[in-house]
């Protein structure tokens, strides 16, 4: 085919994806390292701090420049964003800065804008620790959000240390996300492998029918399946009702809005994603390998473990990795059937984007999630022998 | 019945033996029972909510006090659920149409293309299947705002097309790669212009792949909640988005009626997919 025609055919989708997929994603991830708020609002302050070291006395000329920035930043509307950014490092400084800006604005021209003036507003505003934080946020890039996403901070001297105990939450979220995804993957494997194996052993017509039973849930909306689990597992739900009627339990069990609910619902949603690739892997193993092993005297269990499983192992690993990758990104199901302590990484990315406006941290957590996904996908790709593992 | 037993008694015994070479051992029975339980686990939750939607009572429990269509009257009688169904269909069909057009063109351009550029392009086109959807949604949330596309149908359709288009490219590209290149040459040697050869030879053989891609693309859009949560405005509340709010609030029988309608739609999609694949298999067998 002529090169020109190829370009014409590929241009529409390429252009579309560059604009609506690649560019937004790149822009989002760039937020993880960008420092734009403080340089935009406090340019003169940063200029005055140019050659200052955190252990030196604060430079002369700093406070008048700081005062000027506060007035102009407040008028231009850029101060609020900078105050929010600095508040991540210096607790409570957000309201202090906004108050200082008001007081600078209403001070008469004769009042000198010096250290004493800001000390009276709040001692924190005249402290080297505050200006060290300002300096660290001078941009254009910093590792602040990336460090924060793994519970690390820089101290006043710029050394990396662990965040104060009360602020350490993200390592916990990461471990929880991995733990839930891992458990769901193992459950899917335990439930899915025998079914996939059975599909390869029965007659074709039976396999077709059994496949329908796997595919129907696969096509059913995620939300419908999550709703089904709410109906089944809630306090007055069908499972509790049945167990109480049978006399197995005296009072209702808490099966939902906790970890149990998340694991059950996620396993249910992801199980077809395990069965389908496993089936195609197991189907590809010629049955005469097993027959050869048994004819050479291996009992069926031995033949299964020594011949069948080793051949199937890379495919099983690839399928499991794909389920794990899908589980890592889960948001809706944990949000609907989990409790506060069961929310996964995606939930925090969404909340920081829409509710608290901490876009830098949302981006840093997103970057972490994307990097993990890419590494694991590459591994799955290699294990499955270079065949793309499609999800359809 | 009688005819069958007669056949069996005449020359059936060896056949029966051949079909069941060994008796089901207890291990084997346990294995079958386990697989049956797994399938029950997969299907029972979905099956359990369907009868609840026809209940005359307002409690989500069995036994049902009686049958009625009151929840369907509530859902389909107008208001937010009907509007959401309309939004989902409009957005889904538009995203599907856009995906099929863009995806098929790209697949035609990619077919038999080798080398680094092909690899880069394929990676970019397939990436939305792998990248966690929350990142696509957050990216769209930021990026559609300066284009004034947040809270618009256009914005939601474009964002859904991003996640739907790989589902079209993959099957169409596969179909094109499997297509015998000598067919086009044969058409040309019979005097067909490239345009006629494309419309009479290439296009008919990729139509089944386009159809299954379209079904997957529609399902991808119809299933999405995450993008709708971040990008859609009050006028673009899709069915899943409306269900999400409903479930956050408290689950009602009306919601089970909506769920049943959604099950019906996805079953229809599934059956359409089975039909498309059967036809494609038959067509392949005719050619082979």
Question: Helices, strands, pairings?
Answer:
The complex is a heterodimer of chains A (392) and B (288).
Chain A: H1 3-30, H2 37-41, H3 43-48, H4 62-76, H5 79-87, H6 93-106, H7 115-121, H8 128-136, H9 144-148, E1 152-154, E2 160-162, H10 170-201, H11 204-219, H12 222-233, H13 238-245, H14 259-283, H15 287-295, H16 300-328, H17 332-337, H18 345-354, H19 359-383
Helix pairs in contact in A: 4-6, 5-6, 10-11, 10-14, 10-16, 11-14, 12-14, 14-16, 15-16, 16-19, 18-19
Chain B: H1 2-11, H2 13-19, H3 26-52, H4 70-76, H5 80-110, H6 116-130, H7 133-144, H8 153-178, H9 181-189, H10 194-223, H11 226-231, H12 239-249, H13 253-287
Tell me about this structure.
The complex is a heterodimer of chains A (392) and B (288). Chain A has helices at residues 3-30, 37-41, 43-48, 62-76, 79-87, 93-106, 115-121, 128-136, 144-148, 170-201, 204-219, 222-233, 238-245, 259-283, 287-295, 300-328, 332-337, 345-354, 359-383, and strands spanning 152-154, 160-162. Chain A is mainly alpha-helical. Chain A has a two-stranded antiparallel sheet. In chain A, strand 1 and strand 2 form a beta hairpin. In chain A, helix 5 (79-87) runs antiparallel to helix 6, helix 10 (170-201) crosses helix 14 (259-283) and helix 14 (259-283) crosses helix 16. The longest helix of chain A has 32 residues, at 170-201. The two termini of chain A are 29 Å apart. Residues 388-392 of chain A have low confidence and may be disordered. Chain B is mainly alpha-helical and 288 residues long. Chain B has two domains: 2-52, no CATH class; 78-287, MetI-like (MetI-like fold, Orthogonal Bundle), CATH 1.10.3720. Chain B is built from 13 helices and no strands. The longest helix of chain B has 35 residues, at 253-287. Chain B is globular and about 70 Å long. The model of chain B is unreliable at 1-20 (pLDDT under 50). Classes of the chains: A mainly alpha (392), B mainly alpha (288). Chains A and B meet through helix 1, helix 10, helix 11, helix 12 and helix 14 of A and helix 3, helix 5, helix 6, helix 7 and helix 8 of B.
